[in-house]
Design goal:
187 residues, mainly alpha, 81% helix
Length: 187
Amino acid sequence: MTVVARERVPLLTALLSVVSLALVFGAAGGVIPQSAVPTVPEWVLEAIPTINVLISITAIGTILTGIRAIRRGAVDRHRMLMVTSFLLFAGFLLLYLYRLIALGGSQPFPGPETIERFVYLPVLAIHILLAIVCIPLLYYVLLLAMSHSVGELYKTRHAQIGRIAATLWLISFSLGIVVYVLLHIVY
């Protein structure tokens, strides 16, 4: 299994990325019907954004701690923290997609049109763009890490791509918190 994955990291990255992005765009575009997800009480749907911002804050912490760990040579700690970060991201995404499907798509911005046009939409667009770009980068570094020994990883682009992925991931999570603040606290 590991040998097969090792030889096909780019292919597996592409396949996982396409499936993940198809789910995201399908949910955002209303292609996935509301009947595809179980019905939950309204308070659960209302709690998801707050849960997701807590997940985002936690993920920022685990990513930063993971970066610090690898800089100190603590490979096992780095691996554990980055896998945890990925699982947090997956949990965030599942909750976000569930809510999006359950509500039948995106909800309108409740604030003034000027703030929507010049603050909210640009921040949201950058957040979404970075999240989309991160997906294949994260799969790539995760698959490399899972299919190579630590010694072998130094001969791959894991560290180089990982630095880019972590930076974009941190920015995306941070902008997601700004979006939350605009949608659920300010307006």
